[in-house]
Amino acid sequence: MAQFYIVAMLCTAVSGKIQGIVKDEDSGKPIPYAHVSILNTQIGAATAKDGTFFVLSMAPGSYSVEFSHLGYQTKLVKDVIVEINQTVRLEITLKQSPIEIAPVTVISKTPFVSKDMTGATYIIRKAELAVLPIDYTVELIAFQPSVARLDTGLHVRGGRVTEVLYMVDNVSIIDPHTGDPVLSMPKGVLNEVIFLSGGYDIEYGRAMSGVVNLITEHPLERLYTRVYGKSERIMPYDYNFGYVNYQGSVHVPVSRKFKGLISFDLMQTNDWNPRLHVLPHKQRDDYTLYGKWLFAPSGKWRLTLTGAKSRVQFDRYDTQWKFNLNHYRSDLIDGNLQAANLSFLPDSRKFLNVTLSRLHATKIYGVREWGPYGLFENFTFKDSSSIKWPTYSVRNPYGADFYVEADIPLYDYPLTDGDYPEYRRRSSNVLGAKGYARIQVHKYHEVKAGFEYAFMELKNFNQFVPNEYLLFGKEYKLTDEYTFHPREYSMFVQDNIDYKGLYARVGLRYDRFATGIDGVEPKAIISPRCGVSFMVTEKFVFRTNIGLYTQPPLYDHLYSYHNILPLPSHLERYLPLVGNPKLNPEKTMSYELGLQGAINEKLGATINIFYKDVSDLIGTRFIPAAPRDYVRYENVEYANIRGVEMIIEFAHSLFAGKVSYTLSWARGTSSYAEEVYDIFDWYESHDTITYNAEEYYLNFDQRHRIFVQGVLNLPMQTKFHAFGYFGSGFPYTPPGEEGITEERNVLRLKFQKQVDCVLSKSFRIGKSSLTLSLEILNLLGVRYQIRKHGPLIHYANIDYQDFYRYYFNHIYSVADKYYAPPADKNHDGIVTPREQYEAFLGLVSESDDWVNAYSAPRRARLGLSITL
Questions:
Q1: Structure confidence by residue, pLDDT tens digits, 129-138
Q2: Is residue 788 part of a domain?
Q3: How far is Cα 109 from Cα 757, in angstroms, rounded to an integer?
Q4: Which residues form the TonB-dependent receptor-like beta-barrel domain (predicted)?
């Protein structure tokens, strides 16, 4: 068995595979013990007696492979492209030669399809990442056919936002507390993004809809520096939302065996979710620091160390708080990741890998202290003891007061006094260990087996400020504070069967999680998965897969307010949402059929048909209890999703691109876990509430969706990139008592469309390069509706006569604290009923959030990239 020598750079086993057979050109018989060498990498292998060879764990990239044997002419195969988690298959013939002659060189042609892709796989490469008009890491898949975007959330094949696993070099960056990614990686340090929307391998757990693997660059063997900047601030006012982004990276080759990469990313904007114009209290400041070091002391051992720190902080805007935004909510997310990966290569048919990692996240939201902050300075938040309950007051431009006579819920009023009523601080510390082995046990069978373990420390402090209407007595506060140590265990095994034109992946995964709460038994589940593909013709591959995909419940759904049960009697009208430690894992049974191939050398086509049954989804239900009722998370929801994806890819010397179309249906009983809790008016009355789950089109159900993406190669190293999105509107519920008297999501918003473009021009200056770019978002300036809008209080509920009845007992004169000069139109020192009425109408009209009901306008940015 041949020895396998390597100093190539890999991180956390992000690799592909090269295999094949070497034959005699004349007789067609296998050539045993032929030497296989991957040039410039010190990787070597030898063919077995049957002429086959296998090279596991190859870094993605382009290679030249040399084949030689005594008595044969050497053959060099160039441009062998290795992709992550894919196999390159080479069939080589050598010509007998009694004397040594010059090697023959051939160019490898990468096939359009690979038979080992048993599920839908989309790869966004570095050249494409550089020009994507996308700012944030989690949105890099936004132009892929499986993705529907609802406001700031991305939904993969009809699943919830929290059903997607985000990873950096095969290490999860998901906070198990909340299900959100905690790191924002700079695009400049990414080599490619692998997006798996269905039929993914058994090694991926905690994912029911998709996997997004962010693959970072490998440290280079030469000193390399790149700096990049992009800004809106030099643009005219109408195109400027204050966005600016700076990135930089440097590759440091200390020695041939020790190399490194350091990167930074800084981003600031005055409005992080633009609408018609810049809105107040929407500032965002991000930074990310990233480092990666590779130490390869020998050909068989390799150690990779990775570290990342990311900080995201931003303000939120809500029209209800329009006149009191300095006391509204702000958020801070501080995350960091450390990972150590050790791999061992006994020989060319075995590969062992172990990864140790630590993921830490701190998430805070509340009312921040106002004032300027430095570049790396975190928000500071008001102490929860000083926060006041939000309420109405005459502190508004109209001087309007509370409409006493009306039967209008308190939370429907514009809030002009007090603070955002909640302060929350969560921290998650996840210590992980992951290991696996890949063994080529037979020329037709490669077995992969591994384990995962995670030990977590989850902390939470949450305080809901007092209010006499909700909590009986001013001295009471609703506080939720806990520390728990849950654990997760996983084992998996998979057989990759590669037999002539057939390829299959058959695997089994075992997951178990323990909540860390006494008396709660650990939950376990077994997930079988199977994917099969075979070549229908030389250019078309058919694939199908079926599998069970699961994920443990978010730990916030287990622990929230559970510590304070039974609820205290001073909770007057407020029902908190309480966690349920006995929640089971959520499950998705997925089926997929696909056909992919090349129509000709310049045109390829793909069609995927998928069907998903989702069960044990987490929802919320009313729980009658003594002394106080509450609402609790339960495994009570389900969903059914089906659809078709069609992709056309084209390539030409002048232009290249792809067009995708998705037709899908997503129905279920709940669009997100807290939906039922949000539907009902828990503040007012809950004694007679009953809820019957009914299936409806989910909020993110988008029937038709088209993405167009292309690049036009112009003269003088100039390129024009275009990105088009066209989709049907999302469903919504017409006005009424939602969930009680009106069927949900029976109407749809209007058709959506947007075209973005990037024009880039490159210059070469010796060994350095410079690239200028102009990015235009929403080139056509079309703003489409993304949500319904209207005033917080319907005009039909405002009766002019009520103000007269109220006026006789409450005359607002200058001496009264409720007197407001803006309401006193004639400046006579008294606010009359007519003036009170008109002031209130003016205030209500300001509560119509029409600005945020439509998508972003046209924006323009200039960018500059320099490489040295």
A1: 989 998 888 8
A2: no
A3: 31
A4: 306-779
